[in-house]
Amino acid sequence: MSPTEQNALILPVKQGNFVVSTRPVPSPKVGEILIKVKAVSLNPIDSTIQTVGYMVEKYPAVLGMDVAGEVASIGEGVESFSKGDRVFFQTNPPIGPDYGGYQEYALAMVETVAKIPEKFTYSQAATVPLTLTTAAVGLFADAPSGAGLNPTWDPKVQYIGHSALVVGGSSSVGIFAIQLLKSLGFTHIIAYASATHTEYLKSLGATTVIDRNKVPASDLTAAVAQICGQVNIVYDAVFSSEGQAAGYEALVDNGHLLSVRATPDAYVPKDVDDVRGRKVTTAYGSPHMPNNKVFGKILYKKLGGLLEKGTIVPLRIEELPGGLESIVGGLDRLKAKSVSGKKLIVSL
């Protein structure tokens, strides 16, 4: 039986300061499960929500998007999960604090929960949901959400001979984008990242790493041209306006640029864009958004198998000691951009 009270990292008011306090343990409704949280990963979006005050309107709020844990209880109508199952999922804080990850127990909707393969730890599984979904929506989902490369996750779909550029290749979203492009058979997968991550990124599927410390964004288009001429897909995984502009110039006619935050007004020449057919899309990495719900259900049905087969590999991790108390310091590190090539994880 679950306790009635729990510890949580709470955001009391809009644009307030995080505090560790107690709150009730929720009960699962129809189609929901209650998860005993074992590990959470930290994402920059949590700091953005706190400082800017967007997405979440219900306060006090509990943030935290990525959770891995154990099923503590199940709601009415749930047949695909049992008490004690090891699972991971992407939370939905905007609908209420019961659904945030920075607490000891959180609710989840079964349609976007997956079981953890035995070979992975809770900490490893917690690195996956948000940033994988962001990469997958952009690349695989149909318009208007993404480029529509493989919306049904058909393993037979391949893009032999195609090329892609991933700006921010060592970021969490970038690392998953590289793996997804590899699964689609792209011939050239170019990562724009620090050369310190070259070996790691190539092990995941990158065919070339352009060192961002030696090649400025202003020279990126030319560097790509030397490798493969032009690219069919650009994924800006780090909101780089300069990287987007260079990537857009490197696109073939009818190519597609995806970004975690696209700024096409800064570089799209409207007079010729219709002729060349190049497209720009912001990828919103939530399976809970109306446009993404069907795709999200398909993703979560496939997700455990993708991990089991090695098609998707969890991110490298750094464990932060101290439980809930350590989250704020970890978010400060993300805000300062002092973390690269790994995920910060807190175990509870």
Core attributes:
single chain; 348 residues; alpha/beta; Quinone Oxidoreductase, Chain A, domain 1; Rossmann fold; 2 domains; seven-stranded mixed β-sheet; six-stranded parallel β-sheet; 10 helices; 15 strands; 28% helix; globular
Description:
- With 348 residues, the chain is α/β, with parallel strands linked by helices.
- It has 2 domains: 5-128 and 314-347, Alpha-Beta Complex (Quinone Oxidoreductase, Chain A, domain 1), CATH 3.90.180; 132-282, 3-Layer(aba) Sandwich (Rossmann fold), CATH 3.40.50.
- Helix content is 28%, strand content 25%.
- The chain has 10 helices and 15 strands.
- It has helices at 44-52, 122-125, 129-140, 172-183, 198-204, 220-228, 241-250, 270-276, 293-309, 327-335, and strands at residues 5-10, 19-24, 32-41, 66-74, 86-90, 105-109, 113-115, 163-167, 188-193, 208-211, 231-236, 251-259, 279-282, 317-319, 343-347.
- The strands form 3 sheets. Strands 3, 4, 5, 6, 7, 14 and 15 form a 7-stranded mixed beta sheet that branches. Strands 10-9-8-11-12-13 form a 6-stranded parallel beta sheet, sandwiched between helices. A two-stranded antiparallel ribbon has the order 1-2.
- A hairpin with an 8-residue loop joins strand 1 (5-10) and strand 2.
- Helix 6 (220-228) packs parallel to helix 7 (241-250).
- The longest helix is centred in the C-terminal third of the chain and has 17 residues, at 293-309.
- It is globular and about 60 Å long.
- The mean pLDDT is 95.
